[in-house]
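One such shown below:

_____
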Amino acid sequence: NALSSIFRNPNTMSYLAMVGLIAGIGEYVRARTRLSLLLVVINGAGLFLSHSRGALLGAGVALTVLALHRQLSWLGFQCVVVFTASLGVYAFAVLVGSLPGPEVVRSADLSGRLVIWRGGFEAVLAHPLFGLGPGNTAVQIATFVAEPYSGFSPHNSYLRVFIDGGLIAGMAYLLFIGKTVLDQLLVPVDRFDVVIFTLC
């Protein structure tokens, strides 16, 4: 069984463990104490035991970013981050059917998330300006999502903000994340600051 700690949903546990793991690594890089190493071990074990593919993938990407920062020049690091981020956006657009792409990407099994994401997009288009308002997003988009996935959460923080707050909130969220990452990417960062960049 997936470890869920005090939460009903193991996805919440896995997200906190993933963030805790990356932050713990940053603390260990800064302080090199046994306590910071213990934080890395506890959060890493929690992440592994939560069995969340998304959180494990996120941790893998974060660890790769940290490793690339150590191995590459600053310009090389910038180029790799921009290229892979663009590749990720392209892959997402292929997954949801907005752009053509290779069959291996289009046929990826995401446990029904594509159906839920498409329903979420329909909900945004039906209420574009201010969205559906804060609340249980799974219930709010249920009428837009085909069975058997009706009533499931979108599992996507970006889409959730667009659903809850419409284009205004969604664009503000994208601007906040984008500007934070861009500001960090334009100025060379040290070993500790790259952890903050990675979390963003």
Observations:
- The radius of gyration is 18 Å.
- The chain is about 70% helix and 0% strand.
- The mean pLDDT is 85.
- Residues 131 and 165 are 4 Å apart (CA to CA).
